[in-house]
Amino acid sequence: MRPDERRLMWLQAVNVLLAAIAGVVLVVGIDQGSAALMGVPPDLVLGGYGAVLMIGVAAVVLMFAAMAFRGMARGERYAPLFAMLGWALLWFPLELALSVLVPGSPAAQFAATAVSGLGVVVSLAVLGSTKPR
Fold it and tell me: So what's the pLDDT on residue 43?
């Protein structure tokens, strides 16, 4: 396998990882929304606004991840830009989801920042590269 093909495989794996993380955020948002509708005490849930924010942004990030995946597969030069936008948009909902999954831990904010920051850096590092011929 040539190095450029290996690099494309790693980039597509990062795009799939973006979609998977956005999917988890979407599921947590749906769970929080249904908990808010059922009347669970407010100290256990984010509330309706947090759930709607998580669901909406996760859906947009899933769209960006799909566009980045298809664009990279077709060899479009600016396809990683969609992945970079997805990682940047995912930061706040990911932080909300991690604060729900790991309550009372300040590590959730640092983990969300680290994950989103690494995704943005990887996406910007390959911006302008094309599919191997």
Answer: 61
What is the pTM (predicted TM-score) of this model? 0.84
d(CA 108, CA 63): 25
Residue 78 three-state SS = coil
Task: Provide the 3-class DSSP secondary structure of residue 73.
Answer: helix
- Helices 107-125 & 79-101 angle (0-180, nearest 10): 170
What is the C-alpha separation between 43 and 96, in angstroms, rounded? Answer: 14
Helix (H) or strand (E) holding 71: helix 48-74
Neighbour count for residue 17 (Cβ, 10 Å): 16
pLDDT (tens digit, 9 = 90+) per residue, 5-40? Answer: 777 788 888 889 999 999 999 999 898 888 888 877
φ, ψ of residue 127 to 5 degrees: the values are -60, 130
Read off the tokens for 65: 């991840």
Half-sphere exposure of residue 57: CA atoms within 13 angstroms, side-chain side? 25
Residue identified by tokens 């969300």 is 112
Distance (Å, whole) CA 81 – CA 65: 10
Look up residue 129 and give its two tokens: 């590269």
